[in-house]
Queue: 4 jobs
Job 1
Amino acid sequence: MAKAKSWLEPHPHGLYVKPADLWIDPSRPVERAAVTHGHADHARSGHGAVFATPETLAIMALRYGVDVEASHNQAFAYGDGFERGGVRFSFHPAGHVLGSAQILMEYAGERIVITGDYKRRPDPTCAPFEVVPCDIFITEATFGLPVFRHPPTGHEIAKLIGAVRAEPDRCVLVGAYALGKAQRVMGELRAAGWDAPIYIHGAMEKMCALYAAHGVDLGELRLVSETDKAAMAGQIIVAPPSALNDRWSRRLPDPVTAMASGWMRVRQRARQRMVELPLVISDHADWDELTTTISEVNPKETWITHGSEDGLLRWCELHQRKARALHLVGRDLEEEA
Amino acid sequence: MKAFAALIDRLIYTRSRNSKLALIADYLTHTPDPDRGWAIAALTESLDFPAVKSAMVRTLLATRVDEELFRLSRHFVGDTAETAALLWPEKPIPFRGGVGVGSVGLAQGRETPPAATREQSSQVSLPSPEGEGEMSVARAVDALSAATRATAPAILASLLDRLDADGRYALLKLALGGMRVGVSARLAKQAFAQAFDVPVDDVEELWHAIPPPYAPLFAWGEGRAERPDLKDVAFFRPFMLAHPLEEATVDLADYAAEWKWDGIRVQIVHGGGETRIYSRGGEEISAAFPELVAAFDQDAVIDGELLVRGDAQGGEAASFNALQQRLGRKTVSKKMLAESPAFVRVYDLLAVDGNDLRPLPWTERRRQLEAFVPRLADSHFDLSQVIDAKDFDDLATRRAGARDAAIEGVMLKRRDAPYVAGRRAGLWYKWKRDPLTADCVMMYAQRGNGRRASFYSDYTFGCWSEDGELLPVGKAYSGFTDEELKWLDKFVRDNTLNRFGPVREVEKSLVLEVAFDSIHASKRHKSGIAMRFPRISRIRRDKPAEEADRIAALLAMVT
Ligand SMILES: [Zn+2]
Ligand SMILES: [Zn+2]
């Protein structure tokens, strides 16, 4: 069996697969990149060729003008893949956002999985995470501290709906990252039976349309900019976190400020963001999901890309699991978590 | 504990005072005794469990959670109680896959998130003696009160084992204090008055006489019992307050004039064998001023100004700055007692020798006060003098000429008025010295809170140093109209140079006329000065920034 360290090199700006001359989620432009998902800290513009799921490529086309039709960019459905330089690459659902994938690499009898970002709990807007057995498991650790235990999503959604109903003269403005979190919140609301139109910030319009085009039904969405202030009383508004306390919010009827993020678990964090209604809804694995996943995948070694790596390293140490931190840079965890 | 946990959770995120009042009032009307009493005592930091302290919680946690993981978590969260609440392991439950330390299984593709699973299991495995699996606040208080240093860890552990994360947070905050939900004693009393539709002055008076969990207070509030009898209790009487004297004049035949002192208003009560000192809000501050407690040995209730003597003022009353050093302390060092000795300048007598003087006119109370003050030790108490002015103009002249740093202005008290709680029209006026003003340049702006969250409404401003450098001299967030706020907000957005989180640095071009009550030397500020009560009095769009005031001009106003 080949030694992983001889063919997969961690660099601060990404993972380099030597025999294939290909980078995974590089944070600077390269000739060949395999991309786990469309978030900006994983997908960048300016690469020569991109290998990704069809949804991720579509997201990259929307966000960075990547040409989906160009022959050097290749799309692979879940389970599919390609071979290059003797390395077999394949894409498997990560459960993080639409199109998010873990990438499995097989080379000389050794299997390595890189998760990108992932979560384990159900999400109506994307395919669920699959456990892919491997020798080396390269995981994220955004919430790699045992204080992070996300409550059941249904519980948080019920809190949101309860808040809207409690004050019918106001509206609830939910800050949610424009790719993934926003659509997840909408999807969860629909699943909970909220069938009123959902009002959105203009910056999310195209991404929501992209989700719909990929078969994710978000119900009726209306633009805040095209709606009377009074008509939004008793309604739910979804906007990027940056719009929460911006002048934009003045067009809303006395909004209750909510924010959907795993960071909302910590009260002082939520207070700092001037949030009145914290919703602990995350697209990243919480502590239990991280540790359970490592146990289920049961790799020989665990590598940690980004997040609270110290916490997860300590857990691995306590469970006699070999682990190391890769210290990848440029992974921005604040907004999308 | 669930309802209490939900209440503090909502209070943490609620910034508006009215919403806080409504939340607490709702809790008080829907929660039975004695839980609501203990809860409100916890909110106002009126509980203390000597056996339960942070260090003990950390030690206890180390028995359940890896110390390194606790350390990392504590560092991230920044608060011991919250870290402990989040980290405390839920009851172990069976699951497939077998993982250790604080992990639970996750059935794939099924909606069985960890927290739900744990919650259900703890309900099943822990039938409560109280029937519904809910631990009451009272039960927790009883258990914590009974704890000794030896038994406290086991008692706290058994309580934590029976709660979910929010409940654990509430319990630990209740046990350790430091609730930080923005609920003052005053707000709690107002919520009580609102909940039961009773006068807040009565609540104020009764509150201090009745210990938690305040059962007789709730019984009275709900109309189930008479107003509790306060004989032989050193209880607080709500203060009589003054309106500002705006543009008006008064006839000194009807009103007596006294100096208004720049200290803190206190009430000293001796009753039932003990002496207590209360501040404006009715909070007891006896512990910060033990020398006054010891010196006040008469059966009486006085109203006066607490001041400290400072050397700089030749043993006279020193400015508010000197007093601040002693405020808010739970214990006072010998050094402090020697360097900043406190005394009270007495201006009213509310009760003496068992007689309530409050219904009497000011003239009569004053007569009795002058006869009473000699009964007190002159080292710690003196009589606030009545200003013997010929007429209102004479008074105005004296007011303008007052140079004593401890004088804040003049009080005008209606001679025939009884002592009544709160602010009543026409009875008492405060006539502050004209505010000082300075022309300053806006330097930074920060977003406000609540309704102002989308506006840059907090401004840091500066004046010019001798080397032509702009140095911050203060911060203000009031004094302007809504229209002016809109204009200022736009100015900030259009003239931003830099952003630091919620703060924007602006082009140094806008002159603000800032009004303030006084100015003091301060080592904490690079400019060497600090303003008291600064507010924006005018926006000087007409004035070029170079013509704003120099620090030297402000230094000349230092008292
Ligand atoms: Zn992501
Ligand atoms: Zn990421």
Job 2
Amino acid sequence: MAVLKKTPTMVSIPNHFCPGCGHGILNRLIAEVIEEKGYEKKTIMTLGVGCSCNMNASWNGDKIQCAHGRGAATATGVKIARPDLLSIAYQGDGDAYVIGLAETLNAAYRNEPITVFVINNNNFAMTGGQMSWTTMPGQVTTTSVHGRDPALTGMPIRVPEFAATFPDVAYVARGSVHSAKEINRLRGYVKNAIEAQLNGEGYALVEVLCQCPTNWGMSVEKSIKWMEEEVAPYYTLGELKGRRK
Amino acid sequence: MATLRISTERCKSCGYCILACPSKALRLSGQLNKEGYDYVANDESKCTKCGICYTVCPDNVFEILE
Ligand SMILES: Cc1ncc(C[n+]2csc(CCOP(=O)(O)OP(=O)(O)O)c2C)c(N)n1
Ligand code: SF4
Ligand code: SF4
Ligand code: SF4
Ligand SMILES: [Mg+2]
């Protein structure tokens, strides 16, 4: 049975991500849900610093390029100034969980009525693939050339698990783009995270495991296999906090 | 009959759709687009218009139209 599919207008401009990059898939899912809700002209995206900066050229909607790590803080400001708009932060792991950890956690802690998407590709991709707090044990990066040693630098950070413990937050989930099945599941998480804001339920966070073939030095085939076998077992997929209604 | 539209100029030759297509209907065409990427082509006789290529493609190459 054929399923009709059309490219959403918010991703109609060709993107500048590398071949096979997971960012492009998440961009499309967010665009689909915004279009479904009729919010194309009523959404402001606050972009983190990282490969998300590419979206300044390709995201076909209103957006603000934030200072590094301050996506959630800027989205908080957007929502205070214009509560009628959908306020979405789009950030990388380095942006949201390293330099911006305080801003990310404080927005969640205060239960700001915003939606935050964090692209976890286990490295600082835009700057050439340095180790992030999300880098996997043994993972080779330009600043962990013999593989990340957890005895020296700790284990990868799991921010959504912590955010989900704050009593009031509306929705927290982690998805992945390593297969069509997971992408379809992730679409549901994206939809819940946006609906939670539109219904005034509170803060929503979705972390998304994304391949970065360029800095991982892997083909797409190897990347998605590594995600399935190594990354997803540590970064458990699913809803960490479901919506109340 | 639905048709699979392939915007070849957007393809970056990453191969994700080829890995994901359950009908093995996709392959690299051996032709280069304006950006210099060997773009994807499909075998109409194998394609069921299931939409999985649309789901995985990071570059919005595929659409399924009426
Ligand atoms: C204040 C400041 N410090 C450091 C940098 C360098 N810098 C740019 S992007 C980035 C990290 C990006 O990593 P991430 O947020 O994971 O995004 P990705 O590119 O991986 O998607 C860093 C450290 C900067 N631009 N500004
Ligand atoms: S460097 Fe990695 S995250 Fe950045 S666009 Fe390329 S593949 Fe994507
Ligand atoms: S629509 Fe389905 S069968 Fe046809 S090329 Fe795409 S993934 Fe393959
Ligand atoms: S997934 Fe998209 S960009 Fe990658 S090879 Fe297939 S059509 Fe081209
Ligand atoms: Mg990153």
Job 3
Amino acid sequence: MSRHDIQLSVNGATHRVQVESRLLLVHLLRENLRLTGTHIGCDTTHCGACTVLLDGDPVKSCTVLAVQAEGSQITTVEGLEQDGKLHPVQEAFWENHGLQCGYCTPGMMITGCALLARDKNPSEAQIREAISGNLCRCTGYSNIVKAIQSAAEHLRQQ
Amino acid sequence: MIPSAFDYHAPASIPEAIALLSRFGESAKVISGGQSLLPLLKLRLGTAEHLVDIGRIAGLEYVREEGGSLRIGGRTRESVLERSEIVQTRFPILLDTARVIADPLVRNRATVGGNLAHGDPANDHPATMLALRATVVAQGPNGERTIPIDRFFTGLFATALAADEILTEIRIPVPPNRSGGAYMKLERKVGDYATAAAAAQVTLDGAGNFTEVGLALTNAGPVPVRASAAEDVLLGKRADDARIAEAARRAAEVASPTADRRGSVEYKREMARVLAVRALKKAVERAGGR
Ligand SMILES: Cc1cc2nc3c(=O)[nH]c(=O)nc-3n(C[C@H](O)[C@H](O)[C@H](O)COP(=O)(O)OP(=O)(O)OC[C@H]3O[C@@H](n4cnc5c(N)ncnc54)[C@H](O)[C@@H]3O)c2cc1C
Ligand code: FES
Ligand code: FES
């Protein structure tokens, strides 16, 4: 079993860590770096609670090895807020009651941010397609979609 | 869930990767997007002593037309395939296929090469590549070789790739004018494997007769299935509803699905027939037929 010294940027901060080859990215984030905003739901690549941005793309961090992320830029939900100000997607989830228990929320918001970074005017169908890999066990999809639509509107006005 | 321990190698070039694979033999596995392999290792349904990550090798992700073929780099992610302009404008069957694979998050990691190399008859690209009569390019210790897609899938989770070979490219002949293709999949929900699915690629002549037909089924046996008898029914004949219905019946006859939570054998075979009709009709429509 090999160990590796890896360097990666998480929410803009550079981290150097030694990891076992089998360590999953989600565990690196939650246990080594104590960034527990990224959740583990299914642990079988289905729910998207563990979604983070890897070099800008939303991916399921329970299905990426930490060593595979060497040299990359990771954004977790903790990295969305800037200078004490919530990201427009976070504001919009709050305002539109886009969460109930909150378990899926970090993943939903990360996926929403990635969508809006590509397209500030997505249709409802495109939003639903984008979040189709993120499951909400509280089934609050209507308000999640509304929140992303409202964040999009806000971003278009900026 | 945590996989059992393994050694991880991140070669920077194809020769380096092949050298590692040759050295470790059967105890090594290539890891590409990891979206099939990591779930298997986590559930401990599979093991590997060595993982050779081809993700650090530059130049394996591309979609371009060259020498009469569409060339897809062996490590091209599904999301890159979906966004490729040439795929969007000229290979709607590939777009149909990529869009029903897993979900958008998985598609940001999963690769087209991995989808074939995994040898899973439930995966969606194999049937599409059969319909398109693709060729797989592999590199190993003795250099490069090409494998026709009809000889690529050798059994359940088994392919013609040797343990020390890497799938480096997929080549698809650029279809002539008046060609079209479509992939139709029935799934219970986003991210599910096919209950049944059919891939059809056709070319018509000026009179509306089939001059080329490719038809294949997903999740209809231990390997992806080409419906040769159905293709023969159509070749040289008019693209009308009666012929298409007859071809789809022949296609369903070669389906040997297994019963599971997605349905009984009878149901799946019937769905294969229905989807074959829909895929053929859509392919004809896209080819400029009715
Ligand atoms: C929740 C979920 C749902 C899914 N749903 C679908 C679906 O509906 N349809 C579908 O088609 N797929 C589905 N998949 C599978 C997904 O598309 C896989 O990722 C893909 O089939 C494998 O690609 P990969 O790059 O991730 O390969 P990996 O997981 O890295 O590798 C898979 C296998 O192929 C081998 N391999 C990979 N690349 C190469 C190469 N270049 N050369 C030699 N060997 C190689 C590996 O050694 C391994 O044995 C799903 C996956 C998940 C997690
Ligand atoms: S915990 Fe990663 S997808 Fe569910
Ligand atoms: S808010 Fe409870 S899982 Fe989505």
Job 4
Amino acid sequence: MTLLEIKNLKKVYTARFSNQQTEALTTVNFSIEAGEFVSIMGESGSGKTTLLNIISTLDDATSGEVFLEGSPLSKIKDKEISAFRRNTLGFIFQDFNLLDNFTIKDNILLPLVLSKTPVKEMEERLMPIVKNLGIEAHIDKFPYEVSGGQKQRVAVARALITQPKIILADEPTGALDSKASQNLMEILKGINEAGQTILMVTHSAQAASFSNRILFIRDGAVYHEIYRGDAPAEQFMDRISKSLKVLSSRGEQDE
Amino acid sequence: MNNRFFSSLALRNIKSNKQLYIPYLLSSITIIMMFYLMASLLDNEFVQERSSSLSPLFVLGTVVIGIFSVIFILYTNSFLIKRRKKEIGLYGILGLEKKHVAKILFFETVFTSILSIAAGLVGGLIFGRLFFMLLNYMVRLPVDIIYSTSSLIVLATVGLFLAIFGITFLYNVSQFTFANPIKLLKGKQEGEKEPKGSIILFILSLVFLAWGYGISVTIPDPLEAITKFFLAVLLVIIGTYLLFISGSIFILKALKKNKQIYYRPGAFISISGMLYRMKQNAVGLANICILASMVIIAVSTTLTIFIGAEETLENRFPYENNMTLFGDVEDVEEMNTRFFELQDRVQNTVNAEGLEVTESESYRYATFFGGVQGNEFVFDESYADQENPTVLMVLPLEDFNGMTGKSYTLDDDAALYYHSTNAYTDSELTLGNKTYRVAEVANEFGEDMDLVESMAIVVPDASHLLEIQEDFKEQYPETNYLTIDAEVGWNTSGTEEQKEALAKQFNGEYGLGAGGSNLYDSRLLQREEWYGMNGGFLFLGIFLGLLFTIGTVLITYFKQVSEGFDDREKFQIMQKVGLDRETIQESTRSQIVWMFVLPIVIATIHVIFAYPIVRKLLLIFGVTNETTWLLSFVGVVIAFAAIYWVIYRLTSKTYYSIVK
Ligand SMILES: Nc1ncnc2c1ncn2[C@@H]1O[C@H](COP(=O)(O)OP(=O)(O)OP(=O)(O)O)[C@@H](O)[C@H]1O
Ligand SMILES: [Mg+2]
């Protein structure tokens, strides 16, 4: 089943004090099946964050459309957009975006509280997730009292707790060292294997190697894609590195 | 690296932290302005000349605002520096030595203090003049009250605030010298910790409040009220801060424990936010509460004095015409003839104008100072003894019956008495060498009796007055103040013009300028000046009310704006994970109970407990009508709540527009 479909997406930024325009996305087309784990890679400034923001409804496209389970996101009313974000999407950010005034537990429960979920149900959902992510010992601490890797696992828990249709992650390993990155990616992979659809933006070939499919974007369009298939991790890493090399050398040739 | 480098760096820091510094500077300027205005009133002609009890009250006001300034500036500064910890921590990591950082902080303090002190003084001068002009125009007193100030006051203001800014500098430096850079980098994230021993703080707060309230509730007389008022105010202020700090944390934690309450969107966001900066939150609320109490007391009391002007005039001058006859120390007995002669003269003069005396009252009395010990009145020859503060007034039955319209009879060894504190319950009382069987009567002697501890004794006739005096003179030959004095008051028929003409005639003969041992006062002639004076009190009351209201606006504004900037990032994150605007509004709405209801309710409780002591103070100004006071108190509470509601709404809109 196609979960997410992106058709002819285009985004043009207009600078605030001049008429200068930046075309961040020219035409983007791709779709994601339910249960997939897709990575998006590309050079800095190629439009990855822009794309993710539009899918997250944090930003509007200039033209084109994003369909979730066949229905266009642009048709969601302003009033419903927060509830939609809360219930349908889960977010993981590069800089964690945890709130210092909440304990770890409250940070995780935040989207549920905003949806007015009964206390009993919240607690029932919390425990399995934090146990699974190995952070149950820290739930009464505050974010500044735990390590970066633990923070990101808290963010994952916060994204998972609403049982979203899709998790959107923007460089989730960006602020972590390689061991913590490895650990986080294993967790994401596990979640995916349990059926969760994930769309992740990353710069790291190692992180991307945990997904089943990789989209490369350049100059605001999907340029190339590779599937993992049944390939073992090392072989897949190899293919990723090669693709990245090709991608950047083509870029240089163009200039 | 020279000073020039550091000073330009300091200037740049201030500019680049505009968001933080503009509210900080604005509020410092306003508080300096407030202090300067208040201190200038100490020098004000009206305050100095009109009533001897006014000056100490303004000294009190100035001290309170002074203390308040210290707390407020330290509070806003701690807010500011906390948000800059990361930036300043970076200096350390980039290789600036601690003494260099201190230098930068020094120049920052110099710039901000010079700017705010200068602007505060100029603003105070302009505002004071303008506002006095406006109030003079509105109240229309017979003589304008002039705003004045002196170089001494300017100097005191500059000195005080330089000292306060000096303390902020030391505080800021200590924040950076004793902390490691990593901690500083994290400084902004960490929430405030609950103060140690908050239970003890809570108990202490109750002790202070009970002590302050206790002084007010048990205050025996107005003179005591003036001296103890300051202590009571101070105790209640300290108690309020402690109560808010310990109490609010206590309640917030309890709310957080209750899952059904805590895990609802509005409460979730606001409770956790308040706990995150619990001390700051508490100090801010306590500030608002104290200012609110001051507004309510200042305005409601002066309003009472103003509304009650006619009544106080009548208390002070019970009759249209009043005459006090001062006795002769050398020839005490002379009064017994002068008293009757004078009443005849009055009668004749009135009749000569074709008018009649419609009502009158007259009595002779002897005054003794001393104290009641057991069932004896112990005489004090110097009348300055603190141990024996009782004022004893002895008057003959004849005059008492005439004055009250009653017809008591007394045996030769019997007397009637009234005691202002109602403490005397014996059935016998020894005065001089004579012991009387005594019976208590109600206060027929005027409200003035209750100003200080006093006793009135009615003896069978005027010869007893002389006998008692003789006895005391024998016991204390040094005594030189014993006389028999008298009061005569009367109303007449006739039109206002006729009455005025008559009053002027009496005034010429017996008035203050005429000299002699009889002093005449006309209510009619005093009225204008009386209203002028009471209008002056109202003027000051409104002025103070306005001053404190500005303070309230300031704090509320500062609290909302600085918290808004503090919370902005959090709300942005929460919006990303699905917080909608309605919930933001809901969370700002659930502040109402805290920001609006709590300070007003506690301020009202303060004012209710201040009632007894304020009532005693009002007695000094001749106000005896409690209904007027209660009504104006309720009116002012409602009016202030309404004004504060507007302030609250406007500032919480500002907060909302910052975070959304
Ligand atoms: N708010 C904006 N206004 C104008 N231009 C923008 C804005 N946001 C992004 N851009 C531009 O759009 C282009 C794509 O930016 P985007 O943030 O999507 O890149 P990215 O692929 O996420 O890069 P990185 O890997 O560095 O995060 C860039 O050229 C960027 O300068
Ligand atoms: Mg990006």
